[in-house]
Amino acid sequence: MAKIAAVITDMFEDVEFTSPKAALEAEGHEVITIDIEAGKEVEGKHGEKVKIDKGIEEVNASEFDALFIPGGFSPDILRADDRVVAFVKAFMDDMKPTFAICHGPQLLITAKTLNGRDATGYKSIQVDLENAGAKFHDEEVFVCQKQLVTSRTPEDLPAFNREIVKLLSKE
C-alpha cells in the first residue's frame, strides 16, 4: 500500500489530521509524520498530541507515494521553512497524489504549484488561492487532474476521506 508523508506541526486542526489518517490506515496505507525535527511531540489546536516520525532533513519526496497536509495553523507555520516548501513542491512537480484540507493549500501556494490548477480550501484563503493562479471551487471536495485533492473544513472530512482513499486505490 501507499507510504504517505504528513507534514504537520503545532496548532494543526486535530480532526483534519486524525480523521484522514484513520481512513488511510484503515485501507492499509502508512502515514509518516514529518516536521522540522524528529521525535518531538506536536499539539493540535484542541489538544491532540502527535509524535513526529521524521525530521525534514531525513526525508526525500522520492521515498513517498503521496503527501497529506492537514489544516489549522500548521501549514502557515511550516511554509516559513524553505526545506518543507521544497519537499511539498516535489510532490506537486512529480504529480504524486497530494491531499490538503482547510488551510493546507497555504503550503501549495508558497510552493508556487497551484497556477492553472483547480482547488478549494478554507474561505479565508480563497483570494490567496486565486492570486496563486488556482481556480477556486466552493465545494466540499475537489479532485484536480486525478492528483490533487482539496477540501474546505472539518465538515467536509467524509467527502475528503472518501476521495483520498479512492485516489490511492487507483494508484
Walk me through what this model shows.
With 171 residues, the chain is an alpha/beta fold. The chain has helices at residues 14-26, 74-78, 82-93, 105-110, 126-131, 157-169, and strands spanning 3-7, 30-35, 41-43, 49-51, 54-55, 66-69, 98-101, 118-119, 135-136, 141-144, 148-151. α5 links the parallel β8 (118-119) and β9 (135-136). α1 runs parallel beside α6 (157-169). The chain is globular, with a radius of gyration of 14 Å. It starts with a strand and ends with a helix. The mean pLDDT is 98.
- Helices, by number, come to 6
First and last CA, distance? 9 Å
Described by strand count, sense and barrel closure, the largest sheet is: 7 strands, mixed
As laid out across the biggest beta sheet, the strand order is: 5-2-1-6-7-11-10
**What does the oligomeric state look like here?**
single chain
Helix and strand composition category: alpha/beta
User: What is the ordering of alpha helices and beta strands?
Assistant: EHEEEEEHHEHEHEEEH
- Return Rg in Å: 14 Å
Beta-strand residue fraction: 15-25%
Q: Classify the helix fraction into a percent range.
A: 25-40%
Low-confidence stretches: none
Q: Please tally the β strands and state the result.
A: 11
Mean pLDDT: 98
Overall morphology: globular
